[in-house]
Specification:
There is one protein chain. 61% of the residues lie in helices and 2% in strands. It is mostly helical. It has a two-stranded antiparallel ribbon with strand order 1-4. A two-stranded antiparallel sheet has the order 2-3.
Length: 548
């Protein structure tokens, strides 16, 4: 034993020091929400048609309507085609009027947009027609950044500390987020967004790890809940910010600059005492613990400080254990599937906010607001119904809602949006459940590896989700049918998992079966707190893989 657990008990589970720490660490979650969904408001649809100014050489006095009538074909509804034009010819104007033009081709000189439109990614980089797919591809590039960040910053925080990784991540997000507003080319924009995505992973993983390593077991859910709710509030702020700022570059600046406020209080942000002890930096750990005790107006007995020593090396599990042992293999495969489909339906709904038919700003506001009761209510649902039923039913509901949306007519935007909000509610609650359930299913020696693997699978799903929208060119219902059917399958598989509510946490990867199913609904909540208290030295580790 290192003695750090006893000292933290003296400090208190959630004293003034820990409360300020949580407040400081959840602040960056506001900017995380902005970068996660800001592009939805930067690529709003505007009418467009091919640039046919070539005809001005032979007809400089043509009105705009005459020019379009001579140079653009019409679709079946009688409107001008947006992605094709009549091929230019070297005839005189009278010949063009007499004989007309027949041969068509794709736009060769760009597109024309209505005057007075605020600059957007769509108009500035021509994300229309055959370039329209770049919008969804760039969203996948951002999700790829999230995946890379989870691979890079998680191990890096274990190696160099929580505090330096937070500083690196915040610096990258601030610089590249702000730099995105000044990029000259769309491919540079995608590269910057990838770096921002990586920094988002670094922030979300590390700030929560730092907070929870200072907080006692009984108050630890408050830190998780605080970060989740702050993320939801950030989505609501994004709706208001994007409504007031229609210029995409100014919006990017407004959403990126506030993260620099973090540097004003970074100097008072402490390093994790637990991490310092594991690295043998005992004197540094003593200093930061004494500062925390002074803030909490308590005194650490000198004999406890003298007992601090590095943790003894214990045999840890490996990734191979997740697949070599039968009971762990089942848990790993099913929970990886659950994270995959959960991420798929969550981003499938979140990134489709512009296509539900109602005002996108109100829809985004509702999407952010609904996450708060979903995250809070999840705590009570876990106590009442247990982990397995909660996980399975929430996934089934989120999938069924998406399947119902596929049969709703396009002229029913209110019905579609209400269903989407319900789906977002169940998907958000399911995410919180997955996080807690996974941590309880995997044994202590391999908990972080198991939950980290599930989180990475969820990141892969996030990369795929925007690309699925490319299938709507074949039928508008295909993407939502995929987003709906996948969680239904995942929810059914979750019924094969063991229940962990009210059971002790497994510590090793032994060949025995997982804990027996002994959930006592609401009465089991107090028992569960006692059980987790026995594992205070280990269970904080899995918080590093919190998933947004």
């Amino acid at each position: 034993m290192s003695g750090i657990g006893d000292i933290l008990k003296v400090l208190g589970d959630f004293g003034p020091f820990q409360k300020w720490l949580v407040l400081f660490t959840v602040f960056p979650c506001l900017s995380v929400a902005f970068h996660q969904f800001c592009q939805l408001f930067m690529v709003s649809y505007v009418p467009h048609h091919c640039d046919t100014s070539w005809i001005h050489a032979v007809g400089p006095n043509l009105t705009e309507e005459e020019q379009l009538n001579l140079t653009l074909p019409r679709d079946a509804a009688g409107a001008y085609e947006q992605c094709s034009m009549y091929s230019p010819v070297d005839w005189d104007l009278d010949s063009i009027r007499t004989y007309g033009l027949n041969a068509t081709e794709k736009c060769r000189s760009g597109w024309v947009y209505p005057p007075g439109q605020p600059p957007s990614l769509l108009t500035e980089y021509d994300l229309v027609c055959d370039r329209e797919d770049l919008n969804d591809i760039s969203q996948s590039i951002y999700m790829l950044g999230l995946f890379l960040g989870s691979m890079i910053f998680g191990p890096l925080s274990d190696r160099i500390g929580r505090r330096p990784v937070i500083l690196i991540s915040v610096t990258l997000q601030g610089l590249f987020g702000l730099g995105t507003a000044f990029v000259p080319h769309f491919y540079v924009y995608m590269a910057f967004r990838c770096v921002v995505g990586a920094s988002v992973s670094g922030i979300t993983m590390t700030v929560l790890a730092l907070a929870t390593e200072w907080i006692g077991v009984s108050a630890r859910p408050k830190a998780v809940l605080g970060s989740h709710c702050c993320f939801a509030i950030g989505q609501m702020i994004l709706a208001g910010l994007s409504y007031g700022i229609r210029n995409w570059r100014l919006l990017q600046i407004a959403g990126s600059v506030p993260i620099f406020a973090f540097f004003f209080y970074f100097q008072v942000l402490p390093e994790s005492a637990r991490w310092l002890v594991t690295k043998g930096r005992i004197e540094e750990a003593k200093k930061v613990l004494q500062k925390a005790a002074s803030f909490n107006k308590c005194t650490i007995p000198p004999e406890l400080l003298e007992q601090l020593k590095p943790l003894k090396q214990t045999k840890s599990g490996s990734t191979l254990d997740l697949f070599q042992k039968k009971h762990l293999r089942k848990v790993t495969l099913i929970m990886s599937c659950a994270w995959f489909v959960n991420s798929l339906v969550y981003y499938g709904l979140s990134l489709n906010v512009t296509n539900f038919g109602l005002d996108i700003y109100l829809t985004q506001l509702a999407f952010g607001a609904v996450e708060i009761p979903a995250r809070v209510g999840c705590i009570f649902m876990l106590q009442w119904f247990g982990r397995k039923k909660n996980q399975a039913v929430l996934l089934l509901l989120s999938g069924l809602v998406c399947l119902v949306i596929t049969v709703i007519p396009e002229d029913q935007p209110v019905t579609t949006t209400v269903l989407a909000i319900i789906g977002k509610f169940t998907a958000s609650a399911s995410f919180s459940t997955s996080y807690i359930y996974s941590a309880e299913l995997f044994p202590t020696v391999i908990r972080q590896t198991g939950v980290g693997l599930c989180s990475m699978v969820g990141r892969v799903s996030g990369v795929i989700a925007p690309l699925i929208y490319l299938l709507d060119r074949y039928h508008r219902a295909i993407p939502m049918a995929i987003f709906g059917s996948a969680p239904v399958v995942g929810g059914l598989l979750c019924f094969l998992l063991p229940e962990t509510c009210g059971t002790d946490l497994a510590d090793d990867t032994g060949d025995g079966h997982p804990p027996a199913e002994v959930c006592e609904n609401a009465n089991g909540s107090s028992e569960k707190r006692d059980v987790k208290g026995k594992d205070h030295g280990q269970d904080e580790e899995y918080t590093q893989t919190t998933r947004f």
